[in-house]
Amino acid sequence: SEIAKPVNQFDSSFRHVFLAITDNTLAGISCMYFAAGDRVGLHDAVSSQLFAVVDGKGWVRDGTRTVSIVAGECAFWTPGEFHAAGTDAVMTAIVIESANLEPWRWMPEIDLAGP
């Protein structure tokens, strides 16, 4: 986290570092570090995005609803979908962005609407 750069676009407050960027498939992999109260402000996804929490806990939003997320869980947003994320504690997430993401092929979907 020491080399991560602060991000404030879209009324955001978190630290971010790119882990890999590819030219041929237009994919990017990054790590986001959130301190207590940090957030990614509401904005639309440019490409498909997989937000995988690897440490801590927080929340994610798809534009209309906000749900809790913990280490070991992921959120997925499609191009044009409004989304946000944040925490009241601490959270670290790996984010993969690519036009070719299809996480439903190997990850079970959780019904956020409940019973």
Annotate the secondary structure layout.
Layout (H helix, E strand, L loop, with lengths): L4 E3 L6 E9 L4 E8 L4 E6 L4 E13 L4 E5 L3 E4 L4 E5 L4 E7 L18
Antiparallel strand pairs: 1-2, 2-3, 3-9, 4-8, 5-6, 5-7, 5-8, 5-9
Radius of gyration: 14 Å
List segments where confidence is low: pLDDT < 50 over at least 5 consecutive residues. none
Number of helices: 0
Could you say which structural class the secondary elements and strand pairing correspond to? mainly beta
Share of helix, binned = under 10%
Give the end-to-end Cα distance, rounded to a whole number of Å.
39 Å
Write down how many β-strands occur, each being a DSSP E stretch of 2 or more residues. Answer: 9
Query: What characterizes the major β-sheet?
Result: 9 strands, antiparallel
Strand content: over 45%
What's the average pLDDT?
Answer: 84
Q: Note the run of SSEs as H and E.
A: EEEEEEEEE
Global geometry: globular
Report on this model:
The structure is a single chain. The chain has 115 residues and is an all-beta fold. 0% of the residues lie in helices and 52% in strands. It has no helices and 9 strands. Strands 1, 2, 3, 4, 5, 6, 7, 8 and 9 form a 9-stranded antiparallel β-sheet that branches. It is globular. The mean pLDDT is 84.
